[in-house]
Design a protein that fits this description.
Layout: E1 2-4, E2 17-22, H1 30-45, E3 49-56, H2 59-63, H3 75-84, E4 89-94, H4 97-100, H5 104-114, E5 116-123, E6 127-128, E7 134-135, H6 136-146, E8 149-153, E9 157-158, E10 161-162, H7 165-173, H8 177-184, E11 189-195, H9 200-204, E12 209-211, E13 223-232, E14 243-250, E15 261-266, E16 277-287, H10 295-315
Parallel strand pairs: 1-4, 2-3, 2-5, 3-4, 5-8
Antiparallel strand pairs: 6-7, 9-10, 11-12, 11-16, 12-15, 13-14, 13-16, 14-15
Helix pairs in contact: 7-8
């Protein structure tokens, strides 16, 4: 997949006919995938290229800076998930306040001046341009004179509710990771570098990888989770097959109620992960975070957590 880091970068590219999908696509969840897949199929039928245009940072974080927004994935993962669908070209437009003030007409006119757009695929609730004045009706009105058709996809519902990034985000924050996975189409995950911790896990007999997670990502509520851990290379690609793990999120109330951390115990593995990047997928919440009487009580509970984690992973088909 070709990756362009701005709309302007299209100017230096061969002008190939495109079928374009536009959206933020945070999480690249099942509804996003349905929309993008439809565009890819249409492109294959017409022997055209399938393109996606997205934005970074998330528009809401720029327009509403006082409302903290927690991302479901970073740009590297977003690109990888979109590439998996079969997209030929990804354009990620930097989103700034100046860009947000661009009138819808100006944005579309610039887009068609830089690329030969044959179809634009969007969700029915899609809106863009200054004060969100561009929508599906606007695109259908302006499309014929600019040479493109418009295809819109109605909202996708699961269990009677529309699949949206905000819904998935809330499920993750409350620890309902299995339900979030149904809407994402994959287990929710966190990715980061392994930092040096306080070594308490090694002392107890359950050495953990302490994961550095930027504040801008959605982290599940405190507790213990059955998880799957993957060691990654610099490009975010797996170095080897995923490994079963049990992950604790919390403040270690038995010891110090310190800074909130994500600590992963990789089952049946030993080695040095410091400085490496790992991805932790959250499969099922096993229990809440608790304070224990001492190290022996913690050791006994962690042994039970490992057993329960194995069982949960087996039941989820991840053993």
């Amino acid at each position: 997949m070709e990756f362009l880091h701005s709309l302007d970068a299209l100017a230096g590219r061969k002008r190939s006919p495109l079928i374009l999908t536009i959206g933020v696509f945070d999480g690249v969840h099942v509804a996003h995938r349905a929309l993008i897949s439809g565009a890819v199929m249409a492109a294959r039928e017409r022997a055209l290229q399938a393109a996606v245009m997205s934005f970074d940072p998330h528009p809401d974080s720029v327009i509403f800076p006082d409302r903290p927004l927690l991302y479901l994935n970073d740009l590297q993962d977003k690109a990888a998930y979109i590439a998996e669908i079969g997209v030929d070209l990804l354009i990620v437009q930097p989103f700034t306040l100046d860009f947000a003030r661009t009138p819808a007409e100006d944005f579309i006119n610039k887009l068609v001046s830089l690329a030969d757009i044959k179809e634009i695929h969007v969700g029915e609730d899609f809106a863009f341009g200054h004060k969100a004045r561009g929508n599906v009706e606007f695109l259908r009105k302006i499309g014929p004179e600019l040479g493109f058709e418009v295809k819109s996809l109605p909202p996708l519902e699961i269990d009677g509710e529309v699949v949206k990034s905000s819904r998935i985000r809330n499920l993750i924050l409350e620890g309902s990771v299995a339900e979030a996975a149904r809407l994402l189409g994959r287990a929710p995950s966190l990715k980061g570098e392994v930092l040096h911790g306080d070594q308490r896990g090694r002392l107890i007999g359950f050495p953990t990888a302490n994961l550095a997670i930027p504040d801008r990502f959605a982290v599940p509520v405190n507790g213990v989770y059955a998880s799957v851990t993957t060691f990654l290379d610099a490009q975010g690609r797996p170095k080897e097959s995923p490994r079963l793990s049990v992950t604790n999120i919390g403040t270690r109330p038995t010891f110090d109620n310190g800074v909130r951390s994500v600590e992963t115990f990789v089952l049946d593995w030993s080695g040095d992960l410091y400085g490496q990047t790992i991805r932790v997928e959250f499969i099922q919440r096993l229990r809440e975070e608790r304070k224990f009487a001492g190290i022996e009580a913690i050791r006994a509970q962690l042994a039970l957590d490992v057993e329960n984690g194995r069982n949960a992973l087996k039941a989820a088909g991840r053993s």
